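idk why but the lab printer keeps eating my pages so im just putting this in chat instead. protein + pyridoxal-5'-phosphate:
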Amino acid sequence: MVPGLKDMTIEELTEEFDFLGLWEDQCRYLIELGEELPPLDDSEMIEQNRVHGCQSQVWFIPEVHEDATGTTIGFRAKSDARIVDGLIVVLLTLANGKTPEQILETDFAGTFERLGLESQLVPQRRNGLYSMVERIRAIAKANEGRQSPDRTTGSETTEVENTSDNDVVPSETSGAQGKPTLPVADDAKSLDIELVRSQFPALHHTLDSGVRVTFLDSASSAQKPQCVIDKEREVYEQYYANAYRGVYRYGDRISRELEHSRESIRQFIGAESTDEVIFTPGTTVGINLVANAWGRKFLKQGDEIVLNELEHHANIVPWQWVAEQTGAVIRYWPLTDDGQLDLDASAEVLSEKTRLVAITGMSNVLGTVPPLSEIIAKAKAVGSLVLVDGAQSVPHMPTRVAKDGIDFLAFSGHKLYGPSGIGGLYGRRELLEAMDPFLCGGHMIDQVTMNGFTVAHLPAKFEAGTLPIAQAIALGRAVEFVAELGFCPVHSHEQSVLRYAWEQMRQVPGLQIYGPDTAHRGAIISFTLDGAAAQDVAQLLDIKGVFVRHGHHCTMPLHEHLGVPATIRASFGLYNTKHDVDVLIDALHFVRQELKLDS
Ligand code: PLP
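predcted complex ->
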């Protein structure tokens, strides 16, 4: 029962919502309900009673009632917005007068679903609603199992100390997982490669010379399928607005689309909650975020960070920087001669001083795919965290962060057939919650005063400012596209192209391939041609329409290890074919002729 309100059950409230049917009318009804909510005293509308995570100001005051039959809890509450007051009435109708145990068993999310609130509330308001649920559950949790005083008569009501948001008990509703958004592929089917290729407009161009484009630089940045291009365009043409701000229709739609994308990404990488999926500009920023927000807070003098020479500069330099700031020490896990991590050397590099193993999921030069589960097990055995640089692995193989025990995963949208300027960082909830914020400003705060600020809940805590909105939404479409094709068909197609390329390239005179055999690598081959500068090779290949990258590929330590200043890299995406390999091989013979390498 809600004090001061007419006695109403949740069933009656649901019936009324059903009867009204239209959200417009239900919204008016919520306002009416809210108008009946009794006011609180000014002395009660204080910080201690405030519920954080709501856009409006909301205050909750719990009262524990004890008598011979047991303990029940009642709440008095109020906000500064009338629709929110209506939502408070819904919550109090669900919770008031129940025992702590009954409150903890209450299916809040199910009721919101039945009332249509799940689909009608804008995400900010929905998050606020769940923050109130969390407060109610935290108070119930704190009073669970409380024995009633041994009295035979009489009863007592106590206003209990409010539970702060820091003590909030994570509930099954917080960061609730949404409905499946990812299509399920038929793993037994092979890729219909012509159909796949037809969806990538940029693959179908010819140069002025009449030569067809053969794109072999997906490790740098992949081409985009039409559905991703269309999605970004749809955002601008149909409902563009800033996200998480406006309650008007465009603002609402855009926030929902973003959350849909976040949910698709969550499923794609196997995270438990969307709270653990942070939009970032890409892998580099994701790793910098962890280095600064986790590293600067938790690393101290003598702590060890384990890297290896395969790593991209994005997974070396932030750690060098943070080591310099904190006194932590970097250790390098040795490589075998063929460019794999030397697992036999694990005892030399891992110890109780190891705080973090930061490792690539797939090398952007050698294609090496380290045995992550073995490495994670070894790291966990010494109590270390593991960060995976997924820039290359996430587009090519399934990622299951929760199942595999990955603590942090950073990846880039542009290598995943999505837009540039957007990517993701996964972090395990407890770690993200314990970390400091990285960038500060709008959206990442809960309260700001002239004297300081408090931070917002996840994931907003790490999403300061305005996101690249259209790109983040289109990234969701990109992961749905890959999921629709399925990693089984994609991987076996890419591996067959890789094996074919490997065999053909090895027959080109003077061509050296770096790294492990095809059983231990993804679809990347870096090579040199004896007697030719990498840049000349790449330039001449371009004449034949073959687009490859050359240079150190942001891996100077690896190139030093290989003993060459630069390599040429052919990298394959899900749209490349054996025909592309044939074109590459012909073009390599052309290069050899042009550079007179035969003579
Ligand atoms: N890590 C690896 C393995 C990469 O291949 C790249 C890009 O090539 C990065 C990190 C950096 O990615 P971004 O430039 O998208 O931040």
